[in-house]
Amino acid sequence: MIETGNVDVYLGLDVGKGEHHATALTPAGKRVFDKRLPNNEPKLRELFAKLRAKHGTVLVVVDQPASIGALPLAVARDAGCRVAYLPGLTMRRIADLYAGEAKTDARDAAIIADAARTMPHTLRDLAASDEILAELEMIVGFDDDLAAESTRIKNRLRGLLTQIHPSLERVLGPRLDHPAVLAMLERYGSPGQLRKAGRRRLVALVRSKAPRVAERLVEEVFAALDEQTVIVPGTDAAALIVPSLAGSLSAVLDQRRILAAK
Hints:
Layout: E1 9-14, E2 19-25, E3 31-38, H1 41-55, E4 58-62, H2 70-78, E5 82-85, H3 88-95, H4 105-118, E6 124-125, H5 128-164, H6 166-172, H7 179-187, H8 191-207, H9 214-226, H10 235-261
Parallel strand pairs: 1-4, 4-5
Antiparallel strand pairs: 1-2, 2-3, 5-6
């Protein structure tokens, strides 16, 4: 439980994307602030400074410590205020104890402040571990987005390769995670361009990314090219699209590797 014996003002924030509603109560329950507040640092800092100057120790409480609640908490800490959060499920249960059924930002902010004042055992401390968890959740969420984008691009690439040259897709499709394959497709986006580049040039290109498999991979590519002599309609268009998709996939995979390293 958070110790609130030295708190002089309980500031409840019902956080929102563009603005918050702030309600401040003294330990006796007197309302000393009850207004909307823009979600920007200068206005937040101004309010925190005024409350501290006039009343003393301020406890800032939110019901969403991450996302839209992150800035108010960061400013509050920097301004010398204490911070805590009231879990959403607890908040909903407590709200049933208060008069009125209509959910408004002002009502929610008042409930948060009053719960902090009268039921401090319901509050959760925002320790360093919570901040680390919030950062990890953000990184994992971004990685999930990148993974979905990677899958989308791979499917598109494999679909194009299957359409214009199934044999080539069977060689390169399962290896689209490999930088050497993407470098090859980014430089030479069609069967004709691969053949025209020649074995020696392709081996040199692949060797810079995968020295051990360069010659074997290029031989497999040329064996696949030899299995088809006709040019399928759409091949020229695919030659424009494939390099772009390969470049995009390479960038997405690089971002995932950077995130994993962190």
